[in-house]
Design a protein that fits this description.
single chain; alpha/beta; Glucose Oxidase, domain 1; Enzyme I, Chain A, domain 2; TIM Barrel; 3 domains; eight-stranded mixed sheet; eight-stranded parallel β-barrel; 25 helices; 16 strands; 46% helix; globular; disordered C terminus
């Protein structure tokens, strides 16, 4: 450890969002890289061609820099993520960015940097209106591309991680995916940033590298100068500045325990996901890209329980055509074979992507024209996606599910659209899957209340707990003032889950769960008590859930559920479950809470 800085009190703790678990102990390396402050400046009409030329040159320089990054990556753990660079290259070529900026230069007669800033702000507004955390975090990709162009417009060289010559913990306002792809794992042992989210590409890359990371610390770059001894706990989001000798020794032990535990969890990858009394549970992965399949398999995923299709549509001037979608779905299905892939149809509002679909702003878009409502309104768009899925399903085990359905009428409309797409393809002589299991995401209170009717219409249910809980409890989980009310153990939520599962069981159709509740081992006993035999989650959560699952009896889960449902309050349910799990499985849960 280096000597402590006198102006930072011992054991100063900053709390952010832990996005990549693990503990790192070392000295800080401040990466000073302020965002370019671009201000629109009026220009003379004669200067317009010059500004456009400068902008186009900056675009090309940005492409060349990203291609250099892509060519320099040799770490096998990162090669599978080079698609992120390809995504940034596509953004640089997209008319929604390039032509819009050029039009702004011409029409508003302002400088290139100012015009680009206005274009980026439009993108930011689109992404900020998206509820899904993963999709909302794609804004960071647009920001990273915009920053790169601005630096090139200004002719400035950005500080680089290549300057690091010893083991350090990087402290930065933000790190772009291109930065993270250039990390030397032998030198960068962790990083912390002012901004960022759990599902940003940078956080995803940190998890792939096994580098502890904390984001969203807001002002860490102003508080931590270079060379300060710090401890990063990426599991709980705690950053400790200037640790005392006692804290230092404590975290050395925690670090050793965590690393031992991580190694032991990976040993569960090849083991069956089955309880002590023989109840089998399929553990699947939620993914967004075909490249994610390899990570899912490495952590023991038995299939894809939720393949999001939204990223195909975002930040474009026109929706993806059938062939583009077909190739994407096919790549995931073939990569996951022989295990199944469940594709969720488009789950985002139409005003969030295609410029040629003109929708007015909605006061409450979360409950507005989104998900299946939008698809059923835009039938042509919906049919294109259904045709692509039907074609891709020919290449492996595939299921399709419809999001945010509220009742039987919508379900039958979806089935009719799917059948119409099927008949079109058959008439055209295009090969399609003979059988395609059809399911519904149960994520609205109305769907939960008529689950007994819906179960007669489809082949399976997938419970989306994130939306179901917030709609059931009328809580915006992103609102800091009421987020504490969002609780999976609320008696109303437990009763809803029980009714859904009982309805499915009566019709002999399987029930899966793909929300955050599925990935938390604290709830695993409750879920098997409900009879849920398929859980889908982030790949990194699979070994932990499997470890807990293999130590449980399903019969105990059934008894536990009965007891929990006898309580009237969230606190009663929570306290009882905490006591049961810590009493029976302290050896499993206590170490995991480092």
């Amino acid at each position: 450890m280096v000597s402590a800085k006198a102006d930072i009190p011992l054991d100063t703790i900053l709390v952010g969002v832990g996005t990549s678990p693990g503990i790192a102990i070392g000295e800080s390396f401040s990466l000073h890289r302020s965002r370019m402050a671009a201000v629109p400046v009026q220009i003379h009409p004669d200067e317009i061609p010059s500004e456009i030329e400068q902008f186009c040159t900056a675009i090309q320089e940005s492409k060349n820099q990203l291609l250099d990054v892509r060519d320099s990556v040799t770490d096998q753990r990162l090669i599978d993520h080079l698609y992120i660079i390809d995504t940034h290259l596509l953004i640089l070529e997209d008319d929604a960015l390039v032509m819009e900026t050029i039009r702004t230069i011409e029409e508003k007669r302002i400088n290139a940097a100012g015009a680009l800033q206005l274009t980026i702000q439009k993108f930011q507004k689109i992404f900020d209106g998206i509820e899904d955390e993963y999709l909302r975090e794609r804004r960071s990709d647009v920001d990273a591309v915009g920053d790169r162009i601005q630096y090139n417009l200004a002719g400035e060289v950005r500080a680089s991680l290549k300057d690091i010559d010893r083991k350090v913990i990087v402290v930065a306002h933000d790190l772009s995916p291109a930065d993270t792809l250039q990390i030397d794992r032998e030198k960068v042992i962790a990083f912390v940033t002012d901004v960022g989210g759990r599902t940003s590409h940078t956080s995803i890359l940190a998890r792939s590298l096994g580098i502890p990371a904390i984001v969203g610390l807001e002002s860490v770059t102003t508080l931590v100068p270079r060379g300060v001894p710090i401890i990063v706990d990426g599991t709980n989001g705690n950053l400790i500045l200037n640790p005392s000798d006692v804290t230092f020794q404590e975290y050395l032990i925690k670090k050793q325990e965590y690393e031992y535990q991580t190694d032991s969890l990976l040993a569960y990858r090849e083991l069956q996901a089955v309880t002590l009394d023989g109840f089998k549970v399929r553990l699947n992965s939620n993914i967004e890209m075909s490249h994610d399949v390899e990570v899912a398999k490495e952590h023991g995923a038995q299939g894809v329980g939720l393949l999001r299709s939204e990223f195909l549509y975002l930040a474009r001037t026109t929706p993806p055509d059938e062939e583009e979608q077909y190739q994407f779905y096919r790549s995931v299905i073939e990569a996951m074979a022989p295990d199944p892939v469940t594709i969720r149809t488009l789950d985002v509002g139409g005003d969030k992507f295609a410029a040629d679909i003109n929708l007015t702003d909605e006061a409450n878009p979360v409950m507005g024209l989104r998900a299946i409502r939008f698809s059923l309104k835009e039938r042509t768009l919906f049919t294109v996606q259904l045709r692509a899925i039907l074609r891709a399903a020919k290449h492996g085990r595939t299921q399709i599910m419809f999001p945010m359905v509220t009742g039987v009428e919508e379900t039958r409309d979806c089935l009719a659209c799917l059948n119409e797409a099927r008949q079109q393809l058959l008439a055209e002589g295009i090969p399609i899957a003979e059988k395609l299991p059809i399911g519904l995401m149960i994520e609205t209170p109305s769907a939960a209340l008529v689950a007994d009717l819906l179960a007669k219409e489809v082949d399976f249910f997938s419970i989306g707990t994130n939306d179901l809980i917030q709609y059931c409890l009328a809580v915006d989980r992103g609102n800091e003032h009421v987020a504490y009310l969002y609780n999976p153990l609320h008696p109303a939520v437990l009763r809803s889950l029980k009714f859904i599962c009982d309805a499915a069981n009566k019709e002999n159709i399987p029930v899966s769960m793909c929300g955050e509740m599925a990935s938390d081992p604290f709830y695993t006993s409750v879920l098997i008590g409900l009879g849920i035999n398929e859980l889908s989650m982030s790949p990194l959560a699979i070994p932990r859930v499997k470890r807990v699952l293999r130590a449980l009896d399903r019969s105990d889960g059934v008894d536990l559920l009965k007891k929990l449902m006898s309580f009237a309050t969230v606190s009663e349910v929570t306290h009882y479950l905490e006591r049961e799990m810590s009493g029976k499985m302290s050896d499993l849960f206590a170490p995991l809470e480092l």
